[in-house]
Design the sequence.
């Protein structure tokens, strides 16, 4: 599916997992990124980020906003493949195949706390490194490469994480790198995820506004909602 020149892969969860596992098992270097409405907004206003997205081996749709945008452009999103739900499922299946995982991002101690939670949930998981997103120079790249990790999860937020991955991709040894936003905050419990009823009603975004009003109000009401209305008006003109 392509929206205003930005592509994502419109897959079911099972198909996306199979493709991600194939990328991890392969011999080439690959990237997986996620696309929500705010990502689309950023991509249209940031050429470097748009270029990073275009280099992705697999870009997966995230959230109600991108689902609505897909409908506006004549498509139908098969499944919401947000990183918060998708990544732990992928980690579980990567573990079964013997992959070694590295977590990079978040504030000090958050990645390590997420690693502890994951070890409880997936006892056999091999997490060979868990470090914050605050580092100097190429320290992080060296640590990742020395760890023997085959899959790297980077949680620095959009578009920083995608740009960092692509800027360092030639040096990074892991075969698969993913940009996963606030994943470590959710897994570690640093942030409390919305109740199931919010998720079922596609209102997880509203929960985020409630728990992080200063940051999320601007994202959803100053950027995303007006952007969605612009998309709607532009499509109505075409039709």
Sequence:
């Amino acid at each position: 599916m392509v929206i205003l020149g930005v592509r994502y892969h419109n897959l079911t969860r099972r198909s996306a997992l199979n493709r991600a596992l194939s990328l991890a098992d392969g011999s080439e270097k690959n990237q997986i990124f996620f696309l929500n409405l705010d990502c689309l907004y950023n991509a249209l206003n940031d050429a470097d980020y748009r270029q990073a997205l275009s280099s992705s081996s697999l870009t997966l749709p995230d959230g109600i906003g991108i689902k609505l945008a897909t409908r506006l452009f004549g498509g139908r999103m098969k499944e919401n493949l947000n990183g918060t739900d998708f990544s732990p499922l992928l980690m579980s299946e990567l573990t079964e195949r013997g992959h070694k995982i590295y977590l990079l991002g978040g504030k000090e101690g958050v990645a390590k706390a997420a690693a502890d939670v994951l070890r409880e949930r997936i006892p056999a998981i091999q997490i060979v490194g868990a470090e914050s997103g605050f580092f100097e120079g190429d320290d992080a790249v060296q640590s990742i490469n020395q760890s023997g990790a085959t899959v790297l999860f980077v949680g620095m937020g959009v578009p920083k994480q995608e740009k960092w991955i692509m800027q360092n991709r030639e040096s990074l040894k892991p075969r698969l790198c993913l940009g996963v936003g606030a994943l470590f905050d959710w897994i570690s419990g640093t942030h409390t995820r919305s109740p199931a009823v919010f998720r079922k009603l596609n209102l997880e975004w509203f929960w985020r506004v409630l728990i992080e009003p200063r940051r999320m109000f601007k994202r959803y009401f100053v950027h995303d909602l007006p952007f969605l209305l612009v998309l709607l008006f532009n499509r109505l003109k075409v039709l």
Remarks:
- The radius of gyration is 17 Å.
